[in-house]
Amino acid sequence: MINFSIKTFLIKTPQELLKEYFAQKHLLADFDWSKENWVEDLAGLLEQDGYEQVSLELGKINELADGSGAEHVIERADLLFGIQLADSLREMSHHQQAMWTFLNHRDIFDQAVETEYIDNLTNWKICNVGCDLSCGTDEEIKEELGTAIAEHFLKKGKGRHCDVDYYSRKNPDRHCFFAYPEDYIKGAIVYENGKRTTHATRPAFEVIFIYDPADGILRTHSPRGGSFEPLQDIFCKKILGLKDGVPDKNTQVYDLSPLKNPNFRFTWQPSDNVEKVELKMLMLDFTSGGSKQVTVEAQPNFNNPRIVFDMMDKAIQAYGSDEGHTIIKKAKILIKFGPVNGRRPKRFTLNIGLPNSDNLKDDPYHNMVRELIKRWELVRTLMREAEAA
What we know:
The protein is of the alpha+beta class. The chain folds into three domains: 6-119, no CATH class; 125-247, no CATH class; 257-388, no CATH class. It has helices at 6-12, 15-24, 38-46, 52-63, 67-81, 83-90, 94-104, 106-119, 139-154, 229-238, 307-318, 364-375, 384-388, and strands spanning 125-128, 162-169, 174-181, 186-192, 195-201, 207-212, 217-221, 249-254, 274-286, 292-297, 326-337, 347-353, 357-358, 379-383. The longest helix is centred in the middle third of the chain and has 16 residues, at 139-154.
């Protein structure tokens, strides 16, 4: 079954582009596009066996046919081909833009799919590797990175092959590497001609690296989890030219202890376009007399904008603890941004926890939040040995 509204997609996508799509695939040569109910006929046809790859591609096109997808298509078009093509794409509807790009600029389309994907990822592993390092991006170096990652996973019985893609991004400048090591053999239950059977496949999974030369931060993500340190070392050696891998003082962790200071205030600059910051929740761990965990949560208001701070102080007193024996393990912070170009103001609730858990993605607003966290001194670096201990 198609997992999106194919009828809506067909209605919103210009018919001429749909005709071009199927013509490129040498399909539907005899289809009658002039019929009044052509949408229903085509939607029914695409539900039949034999059109699985078409349905998969149309689903990917549909995923880029919205405001977020359009931003990524325009970003890649501007970066790869210049402002003229980007401006032309801005004049198109979302569905027209997505389909036209798929047909005429697959490089733009494929990169937009990837960059939108990483913008929605959370739980990145973060380490500080150094600012303004030379970043190798040519084919030979990417192949070396892929080989090293494959060798790493071969020890675990997977990773026979590993391709690597690279994209650069702007505002801020970032180097993005997508590695696709081969996974274990898996069996997929499928239907062929209406009969159930099992196919053996070797799927790939992704390992993503993002290096920001301005702040020296390397972000690493993989759905497989596990230890990220060997992967970070491989990237630093192969791409950044650090012969010893990640420098000793590297791992960025959150430190929420400044929130215990009665003089702490959330501050920002006019250029940050921030209207308001509110502390909404704290999870406290009292370490004296046996570990106890308490959560204080409230909605700040005009009469008491620091209500959560006050609740923390009362909880510390109630449990007979003190600041030295109180660890703030998690915090929830609301950041409200001002409107931009007449658009509605953005609101983001930051969930931040020890040691380096957050819900930050890779987009301009979230990057600004990262900068605010640094200014509030809620992040610090640890030596790898200290973290392991």
